[in-house]
Amino acid sequence: MKNINSYRVFERNNKEPNKEGDYVLYWMQINRRFHYNFALEYATGWANKLNKPLLILEAFSCDYPWATERTHTFVMQGMKEHIEYADRLKLNYVSFVETESGQYEKLLKQLASKASLLVTDEYPVFIMRKRNEKYPLEMDMPYITVDSNGLIPLGFTEKDPYSAYLFRKIMQKNFVEAFTNPPKKAPLDELRNKKKIKLPGSYFENLPNGRDSLSNISETVSGLNINHNVGAIEWHGGRQAALGMLGRFTKDNLLEYDEKRNNPDEKKTSNLSPWLHFGKISEYEIVKAVLEHQPKDWDLDKITYNNGSTGGYFNGNPNIDGFLDEVITWREVGFHFAHHREDYDQFNSLPDWAIKTLNKHRDDPRKWTYSYEELENAQTHDQLWNAAQSQLRRDGIIHNYLRMLWGKKIIEWTPDPETALQYLIDLNNTYAIDGRDPNSYSGIFWCLGRFDRAWQERSVTGKLRYMSSENTRKKVKLKQYLATFGNQKELI
User: Please, is 381 exposed, middle or buried when counting C-beta atoms within 10 Å of its C-beta (0-12, 13-18, 19+)?
Assistant: First the structure.
């Protein structure tokens, strides 16, 4: 039987390594970290096998959908932190921030032309997926992608899971093997050939210097042709900030997570999704840190397979069980779905029952309809919805429970389900710091029926699960939340 981690590796073009190459190239696209990174570990292994130095490229494009000051600042903060780390370890590390369309691709192909092989991140959505489909066809050496996204390897599932229950069964059967075969904490410690790579100056002609670009991030970002109406958030985009957030969560909030997570005023959620999205911290690290807070007599032998049920698998503190179901099952089901479906972001990818019920009710009269601009600016009749959108605009996140309500209402307030879907994707991917992520698409499409079942039939939304602001106000604590974000004047 193959080791579970072998299902993480995807040979994209089946080329032979270039023995005359100067180095092995690791292109850090989305999992932007030097620790607990299977792709970096795999690239290091190839460098040792070929006795070549390792060149690490981390770059950022200015020409991508939904490009904003928010995402640029967050990513560049992490890149600046990486420069300092790479200098301490004397790594062959190239950081680059594109200022004009095409610069990134040109530099990548120049670096690849001198490489024995290229290793990069496997990622099932957005521009990373498109690059990993396009570039292997254009390169003459091996182009290998490695999945460092979660615990259960993307290659381990044979088809798209249509429910969290189905994926949870797979996870439960394979969690222990995956967790006990983790990525190495510091794979670069094992790199044998540490020869300094001297790159031709011609590669960087007319290109911005990475260190100069990152020395004053706000100045660099202000000069880019991106959306400047969506500003940076307070959180720092570096790995140290991620580790600090994880430490505070496990110390202060984890053991009350399950009972209080749905109440915005309690502030018990982990807030780790921005750093997870950009790969600053690995899911394995989070799971490991959380399991260390189980009762003292708990160990992996306490785990019992329970056929995909949400409780009674880890058999420890119920708050920890609840959090792990979110970070493993609900996060990873979206990755596996998108991995098997090119249409992960299309209306027709919804389950048949959801498409049928939405089509049946597409001509139902709407009590309220709003333009994209009205929704974007939190100008609806619903104070709670406006508060959620205001939080998204200011902080780049929406509280987990309110994010579901936020999506459900847009379906009711738009002329048809396709318009609702496009508004949801555009609002989320523009403003959410963790947008453009498989987990983002899971949340959006869950509102439209993905990973869910049919419920009582209603006007407009048909058999989709229904949520209302009135019921939400009764269920969760919102006084402080509304005091912060709910100052919009209600229209009714």
Answer: middle
Mean per-residue pLDDT of the chain: 96
Which residue type is seen at 482?
A: L
9: three-class secondary structure by DSSP = strand
For residue 93, give Cα distances in angstroms to 59, 97, 361, 412, 420. Answer: 10, 13, 55, 49, 43
Tell me how far apart the alpha carbons of residues 374 and 369 are, in angstroms, rounded to a whole number.
10
User: What distance in Å separates the CA atoms of residue 64 and residue 253, rounded to the nearest whole number?
Assistant: 36
- Residue 211, pLDDT > 90, answer no
**Residue 431 to residues 205, 284, 457, Cα–Cα distance (Å):** 34, 27, 32
| pLDDT in the model for residue 422 | 98
In angstroms, the CA 415 to CA 460 distance is 10
Tens digit of each residue's pLDDT (9 = 90 or more) over 427-447: 999 999 999 999 999 999 999
Contact 80, 191 (CB under 8 A): no
Q: What are the backbone angles phi and psi of residue 59, rounded to the nearest 5°? A: -135, 170
Contact of 146 with 117, CB cutoff 8 Å: no
Based on C-alpha coordinates, what's the Rg of the chain?
23
Tokens found for residue 304: 């019992």
C-alpha–C-alpha distance, residues 102 and 310, integer Å: 47
Reduced to 3 states, what is the DSSP secondary structure of residue 471?
Answer: helix
Q: What would the two tokens of residue 181 be? A: 């075969």
Using CA atoms, how far residue 320 sits from 249, 264, 286, 325, in Å, is 12, 19, 11, 9
What are the CA-CA distances from residue 476 to residues 266, 384, 482 (Å)?
10, 12, 12
Longest dimension (CA), the chain: 72
CATH class of 4-150+191-206: alpha beta
* CA 253 – CA 247 distance, rounded (Å): 10
Helices (H), 318-379: 318-324, 331-340, 352-360, 372-376
What dotted CATH number matches 347-485? 1.10.579.10
Q: To 10 degrees, the CA torsion angle through 261, 483, 441, 448?
A: 90
Quick one: fold of 239-340? 1.25.40
Specify whether the backbone of 396 is left (phi greater than 0), alpha (psi in -120 to 50) or beta.
Answer: left
Spatial separation of the C-alpha atoms in residues 62 and 58, rounded to whole Å: 14
Q: Are 97 and 63 in contact (CB under 8 A)?
A: no
In the chain, domain spans? 4-150+191-206, 239-340, 347-485
For residue 490, what pLDDT band results from cuts at 50, 70 and 90?
A: very low
Query: Smallest Cα–Cα separation from 72: which of 199, 214, 181?
Result: 214
Query: For 265-280, what is the mean pLDDT?
Result: 97
Asked if residue 278 lies in contact with residue 32, where contact means CB atoms within 8 angstroms, the answer is: yes
3-state secondary structure of 120: strand
